[in-house]
Structures are given as structure tokens and as C-alpha cells.
Design a protein that fits this description.
The chain is of the alpha+beta class. It has helices spanning 6-31, 69-83, 121-134, 204-208, 215-220, 232-235, 296-303, and strands at residues 59-61, 64-66, 87-92, 95-100, 105-115, 154-155, 161-162, 173-180, 185-192, 195-196, 225-227, 236-240, 244-250, 255-274, 277-292, 305-307. The strands form four sheets. Strands 5, 8, 9, 10, 11, 12, 13, 14 and 15 form a nine-stranded antiparallel β-sheet that branches. Strands 4-3-16 form a three-stranded antiparallel β-sheet. The longest helix has 26 residues, at 6-31.
Length: 308
């Protein structure tokens, strides 16, 4: 059976959250102007894709020679592909299962919610409960990943993107670096290039992270939401930028022994009409993270999975 990430359910509700936030914020600001704390902000996506990690320095790390960013990316792909061939035995709900050896957790946060360029402390307090009801983290293999079962590890339209091997190339990476941990492992950090509306397996963000996919189609399907001017593509911008993957590798075995993926998504809505509210704008940041390996406690509590 196909076990989907918590993102699958969250995608269906993200646009609804934006609508709720627009309505709730306007109501709060209008009804409680005295107790509302606001700060001005800019809710337009930046055109510049900036490096947020250390620059690459050529050298030998953990016995491996890296002369360029391309060398770092190629070695990451080699290790990713090898690590995803490794499986282990588990029980899930008391039943025996064969899953990836490297399993991770996932978490999602919504931050920096702005409506009409302003934040609202009362609404900010509601966001965690709204998101918590829509997103429930699950257990999957290394990102990008569609399943903890290797045989079902596919994403994209009609499961066209096979996640058992990495599709990332040096052309997809804005910057990468490496450090030697002095214990037989190295840690590399990769930052994929910015993408607007990333799609699984089709672009730098979608090849590296569990990208959200076509959220705009969900927004367009909401009956109570329309736009005072322009099209959905012009008024709904989903900008992936500044996310990183931090990967620890045993250079003797080429196995990934630890990883942290942090995907950053900035969402802008312009000229939105919701019920009697017209021509409103809103923005928010989505931070989706995955940590590997997941703890035994997380495996047990989230999906009743136990390592044998």
C-alpha cells in the first residue's frame, strides 16, 4: 500500500489555511485594533538567489579529493544511491516489514504570516494549532522520498519520479561545501538553486527535497477565493529558496550515516478576494525539515515501527 508523506494531506489544506488567515487577520485587526500588535513587512518574493552556506574550498576530506562543487555533488549522488540500496527489518503494528535502513522523521512549520504586510500576534498564536491539525509527520527514506518501502518510493505525476536514485546534478546546486570530522566521516552541505513552484523530480528543489508540488491548483479550486485582477499564476507565488541539506558520510563505506534536510518555501498571495473582503494580500513561510536517522521513540510513536 502506498504510504504518503504528511505533505500529501497538508497540500490539500494549505490554500485553505491562507484563506482562513486572511479572514481571521482582517477580523482581528478591525475588531481589536488596540490589543493587536503589528509589524510592517514585505511580502514579495526576492528575485535574488543568495548563498546561505560557506563557500567551497578544494581539498582532501576524509581521504576523498574534492576539486570542485561538481565533485561534491557527484559524491553525494554516489552515496545517496548506495544508501538507498540498504534495507533493514522492522515490525510495524506487529507485522514484519522490510524498509530502508536509513529512515527519518519530518516536521513542518508555518512562520512569518503577514496579511496586508502586517503580522498579528493573536493570529500567530492560532497558526500552530491550525497547522497541527493538517500535518502529521510520517517516516520515510532519504529525501526526496515517497515511501519507506523501497518498492514504493516514487513521487510526481503518476509516480514518474523514482526516488531510489538521486537526479541532482551540479547544475542544480548553487553552492556546496565539505568538512572533515576527523573520525572517518565527512559532512557536506548542499544548497539547491531557487525555484518558483518546484515540482517533484523536475527541478533543483524537486530533485533534492520533498517539494510541495502544484499548490496553485489547490488554491484555484477554492470556491470562496477569487482575484480582483490578474491570473492565479500572477497572484500566487510559491518561491523555494535558501534550503539546505547537511549530509554526514562514512567515506570508507560511502554510506550516509546522518542527514538534515531543511526546505524553505515563501508563499505570496496578491489581489485576493475572500467573501466580502477584496483585494487583499498575504504571505507566509513554510519550513519543512527531515532528520535522519529518526529516533526509536519517533518510529514507535508516529507509526508503531520498531527496528529488529
Amino acid at each position: 500500500m502506498k504510504r504518503k508523506s504528511g505533505l500529501s494531506k497538508f497540500n490539500s489544506f494549505l490554500a485553505v489555511v491562507l484563506v482562513i488567515c486572511i479572514v481571521a487577520t482582517v477580523i482581528v485587526i478591525n475588531k481589536y485594533p488596540v490589543i493587536t500588535e503589528t509589524t510592517e513587512g514585505d511580502n514579495t518574493a526576492s528575485a535574488a538567489d543568495e548563498v546561505v552556506i560557506d563557500e567551497f574550498v578544494a581539498g582532501t576530506y576524509g581521504g576523498k579529493d574534492f576539486a570542485s562543487v561538481e565533485d561534491v555533488v557527484n559524491y553525494y549522488v554516489e552515496c545517496y544511491n548506495y544508501t538507498k540500496t540498504l534495507t533493514a527489518e522492522y515490525t510495524e503494528g506487529g507485522e514484519s516489514k522490510t524498509y530502508y535502513k536509513m529512515l527519518g522523521d519530518e516536521n513542518l512549520e508555518v512562520k512569518n504570516l503577514l496579511v496586508e504586510g502586517k503580522s498579528n500576534s493573536m493570529l500567530d498564536g492560532l497558526v500552530p494549532s491550525i497547522v497541527g491539525g493538517l500535518f502529521s509527520g510520517t517516516v520515510n527514506g532519504l529525501q526526496p522520498c515517497g515511501n519507506r518501502d523501497p518498492e514504493l518510493d516514487k513521487r510526481g505525476e503518476n509516480d514518474s519520479f523514482d526516488c531510489r536514485t538521486s537526479a541532482i546534478t551540479a547544475d542544480d546546486i548553487l553552492m556546496a561545501n565539505v568538512k572533515d570530522n576527523g573520525d572517518g566521516t565527512i559532512t557536506m552541505v548542499l544548497q539547491p538553486k531557487e525555484v518558483v513552484l518546484a515540482m517533484p523530480g523536475e527541478d533543483p528543489q524537486g530533485k533534492f527535497f520533498n517539494a510541495l508540488g502544484d499548490i496553485s491548483s489547490t488554491v484555484e479550486s477554492i470556491d470562496v477565493l477569487s482575484f480582483s485582477q490578474g491570473t492565479i499564476d500572477e497572484n500566487f507565488v510559491v518561491d523555494y529558496k535558501g534550503g539546505t541539506g547537511t549530509i554526514t558520510i562514512d567515506t570508507k563505506t560511502n554510506e550516509i550515516v546522518g542527514a538534515d534536510y531543511v526546505m524553505n518555501v515563501h508563499i505570496d498571495v496578491q489581489h485576493a478576494n475572500v467573501a466580502v473582503l477584496t483585494d487583499k494580500k498575504a504571505s507566509l513561510d513554510v519550513v519543512y525539515s527531515g532528520h535522519y536517522p529518526a529516533s526509536d521513540e519517533y518510529l514507535k510513536e508516529s507509526r508503531d515501527i520498531v527496528r529488529k
